[in-house]
Amino acid sequence: MSVKGIIGLLVCIILLFMIAPCLAVENFAVKLVEHVDGYGRFIEKTGPYGRGDMLRVYAQAEDVNHYRAYAVDFVFVIYDPEDYPVAGTVIRKEGTDWTDKVYAVFEMKIPDSWKTGKYRVEVYVFDVLNSTATKEEYDSYLDRLISGGSAAVSVHTLPRDEVDYEKEEVSFQLVDVSLSPVYIFDSGLKATVLPEGMNNTMQVSMLNAGDKKATFYAKLLIDGEVSSKQKVELEPYESNRVEFSIPQLKVGDHMLEVVVDWGNKRELKTLPIFVKPYLFSKPVMVGSVGNGLLVLSLNNYVLGSGGVTGMDENPPKFSTSKDYVMNRENSAKMLTNILAYVWKYGKHGSSLKVGLYYKSDERAEQVLPELLEYVVKKSKAPVEYVGTLEDYELGKADLLFYVTDSPDIGQLSEYIESGGSVIVDVTDFYFTGSDVIKEYGLKESEELLSTFYDLRSINKTVSIKLKTELKLPPELVYSNFSVSDFIVDVGKPVTISFDVRNVGGAGTERVFVTVNGEVVFNETVNFYPNEVRHFSFDYTPEVEGSYKVVLDNSPLSKVFFAKNETKPQVTPTKTPEAEKKGRGNAALITGLAGVLALLIIVRLYLRQ
What we know:
The structure is a single chain. By secondary structure, the chain is α+β, with helices and mostly antiparallel strands. Helices cover 19% and strands 41% of the residues. Strands 23-22-24-25-21-20-26 form a 7-stranded mixed β-sheet. It has a 5-stranded mixed β-sheet with strand order 3-9-8-5-6, with no helix packed on it. The chain has a 5-stranded mixed β-sheet with strand order 11-27-16-13-14, with no helix packed on it. Strand 18 and strand 19 (278-280) form a beta hairpin. The longest helix has 32 residues, at 576-607. InterPro entries: CARDB, Ig-like_fold.
């Protein structure tokens, strides 16, 4: 072939390449989803569908841009169990910009007339952009603007039957009624070591993360036998703490297990955060970096305790009620374990000084102090919050919280390597953290699940040991002792209140209070290890004098005084001059009466 022939052939090939449609899409994928936030940001559907449920099919493709334009057709076809097509649609994505990634979502409510069984969904992607015609519009833009006074660029497409395509397929199961997913986690005993003859309780958390009510029975098995059964009713998106009473058991080891009669139950090891529709439940990763510690939490514990995420701008609300609030409790427990881990392996003084990195989500400035205060209240952790810190102030903190949707840990490397500890709490549900985990060599730590609260046995068999003898008897410590009034009228009650904490082993102890040596309050109480109880009662003095209140022969005591009620006296009307003179006399008499009353009270107290 001559040189001219070769050149002519190359030109033809080039022209053919430019004119012919090309399918250059990459990363074509199809998923069944529950929720979509954008390209590659979706919550995947698991489990079967029921009649009346919403079916969502997500499809995506990359590298769709040619000459600053794109036109992509997604074709969806659903086939029933007999392989008949029962639904379908075409969704086009097009535009004249630099978009290079597109996605489409086919949504439909599953009709009641569909039969149960396995369905399959075929999804096709067609790159239908006529790139040559679109490029000509760009090339002629200036000429058309000059000649006509205005110009625009339109997307030109080709018929789908003239272009190549790619195909993906997914399938799902259709049942009569689908069940909401119920998550089970955080099971625990009130006490793991007890003397013979004491009762016990076991609690477990349950969350209905679906849009249908869940009603089922939960059973407590002791040594493989059903001991008790609870009916559980959870409204859509509701969580609750289910409690079982454990009867008196014989001496020895006993295996306890919670069994849930529900077809769509799932067990979680990590304490979750649920902010509809996002369920954060990834493992917490830890690792040493230089002389410091790095903890990566992908579970939004700080903002999640206030009911928000990094995907919204809603104001947080940290609950202070005494009721069970799942996100608050799970955040407090998990962070307590992390703080205990840092206390054990990190650097600190007599207390753990905790700060918030200034590049954190600004809402964390409100939530973190309240959350830490709640943690300290529940665990008595030696934590001191030092506020929001900028880079030059990081030395004030032993531990730094970094609450963000996209962490840049490199800027904290020097602080960590020099001995600081950092908890990175990620607020974006879709952040995987794979690059951070790889770069810093982070790993899951089984120890992290038991540093304070023992979370290792979540939703698994739990062992309780009962012994006839305890190495530690109950040891009671009194606090928050108060008497409502210092001086009270005879016949009027005062309120006496106090807290009792058992810092010893489990057992029965007597709690009593004396007033002037006489027992006025007496209760026999079963105490569990580390249990705190609040007591309050009213006492009415019957005679004038001083009263000494003593708690259980302890050094704690308080004194109050009772006096006879003073009756008001009628004062006669005086002339202005007499009234002026009377005021001076009244002031003198009042002063002398006050001194006399004080002397009488002191004398009574000394006599007592």
